[in-house]
Amino acid sequence: MKINVIGLGYIGLPTALMFASHGVDVVGTDYNQKVVKTLQKGQVTFEEKGLKELYQKAMENGIEFTDKYISTDTYIISVPTPYDVESKKIDASYVNNAVKSVMDICPKGAVVIIESTVSPGTVDKFIRPVVKEYGFTIGKDIHLVHAPERILPGNMIYELKHNSRTIGADEKEIGEYVKKLYQSFCEGEIAVTSIRTAEMTKVVENTFRDINIAFANELMRICRSDNMDVYEIIKIANMHPRVNILQPGPGVGGHCISVDPWFLVGDYPSLANIIWQARKINDSQPEFVLKRISEIMEENDIADLSRVGLYGLTYKENVDDTRESPTLQMLNCMKEHLATGIKVYDPYIKEDIVKNQYHDFDLFINDIDMLVIMVSHNEIKEKIKYLENKIILDTKNIVESAYKL
Ligand code: SAJ
Predict the structure, then answer these.
(1) What is the mean pLDDT of the chain?
(2) Which of 2, 65, 273, 382 has the highest local Cβ count within 10 Å?
(3) How is 86-151 classified by DSSP, letter by letter?
(4) How far apart are alpha carbons 357 and 201 in whole angstroms?
């Protein structure tokens, strides 16, 4: 048995390394040659706690990286599944193309596991027809499985090992085979179910979190409008044994929580009401921060936007991923209003990706009067005590004396 992991991004790479470091024979495939070359050269492609060590172990165990698909009995597909901005429906083209490339080369009897998050019904609507086009009989020539991941960026390696997971399969024996495979490293409980249930469960988990964050953001707006402390209110409310409200923030970023709920809105527009509202609230949060920046600037006689600095470009703390990041959303919004000159810094982003971006914390701080904390990286938590002379808007509630959302 040999696994070919297709797509070596934020999910595919740690998954491939985890299998390999636990003695499973693995070949990792990515069409991006830069990614393949970097991995072949001995480097990982993104920062994540414990990833380098896992990579070392996987290399010692003989993991290989290539831009070609290989002929084998087991495939794991972990390619992106974006949504179409207009229709809000899933763009299944990456998964589709990956499945086609697998069909081109796989032997009969192969198990094709889709790890990418897909909207409920994607396997029925898109994947089964592709397999049939190739003249294969599903359940005999090709076995389809959906095994969505649940790992949290920033704590991926721990969660890969300890989280429970879901495996959706057409046939019980195949579900059990894949369960056993994941048990080579996964110590959590593994539920075996149908493909449709696994698809829906994954999207529901991220949608639940999106709605909870939207609730926190809405509470924050209510409290702001009537001079109440939302953080204290949430803290006390959460002392109730059945209440667990998340935290307000500058918006919801990343490729999961800000994307998956749209699948339900796109497919069930007349039914997905709370889900839609939650998306709207979280998506308008960067604009809300902008309003707070302008209020605080006015209150403190800061006329020039170039004396204001945004701390953090990534979508959350201690990761180097900027996908759908609230700061980028806010900068786009500013561009539309022709508001320019604001300064930006993020210790995790080494390349220039926006205007007026700094790569040195001290230079950044010396050039501004007002600091807006968009992301609570550990760095800012450590350095905050040296910033007493700055006006601070803290969207992450890490500095007691600062302005809040
Ligand atoms: N956020 C808030 N307030 C909070 C918590 C988060 O504003 O109280 C914001 C974050 O700052 C960030 C966004 O939400 O911008 C999402 O961050 P996150 O840490 O909540 O989640 P992700 O996107 O990094 O990972 C999620 C996880 N899903 C759930 O917790 C249900 C993870 O377990 C999934 O594996 C991942 O999505 C995925 O790949 O689907």
Answers:
(1) 96
(2) 65
(3) TT--B-THHHHHHHHHHHHHPPTTEEEEE-S---TTHIIIIIHHHHHHTTPPBTTTEEEEE----P
(4) 40
Residue 86: pLDDT over 90: no
| 401 CA from centroid of ligand 1 (Å) | 27
CA-closest candidate to residue 46, choices 320, 322, 324, 316: 320
Pocket lining: 206 vs ligand 1, CB cutoff 6 Å: yes
Identify the three-state secondary structure at position 45: coil
pLDDT of 268-325, one tens digit each? 999 999 999 999 999 999 999 999 999 999 999 999 999 999 999 999 999 999 999 9
Residues annotated as catalytic (active site), given as ranges: 202, 256
Mean pLDDT score, 67-93: 93
Nearest to 309 by CA among 380, 217, 242, 261: 380
The CATH number assigned to the domain with range 2-193 reads 3.40.50.720
Handedness of CA 116, 118, 120, 121 (dihedral sign): negative
- The domain locations on the chain are 2-193, 210-394
Q: Tell me the CA–centroid distance for residue 301 and ligand 1, in Å.
A: 36
Identify the residue whose C-alpha is closest to ligand 1 atom 3: 247
**Inter-axis angle of helices 260-267 and 273-283, nearest 10:** 140
Q: Do domains 2-193 and 210-394 have the same CATH topology?
A: yes
The CATH-assigned architecture of domain 210-394 is 3-Layer(aba) Sandwich (3.40)
* pTM exceeds 0.90, yes or no: yes
Specify the ligand 1 atom closest to the Cα of 325: 15
Q: Which atom of ligand 1 is nearest to the CA of 257?
A: 23
Given a contact cutoff of 8 angstroms between Cβ atoms, the answer to whether 171 and 195 are in contact is no
155 touches ligand 1 (CB under 6 Å): no
Sheet holding 308-311, edge to edge: 357-358, 343-345, 308-311, 370-373, 391-394, 403-404
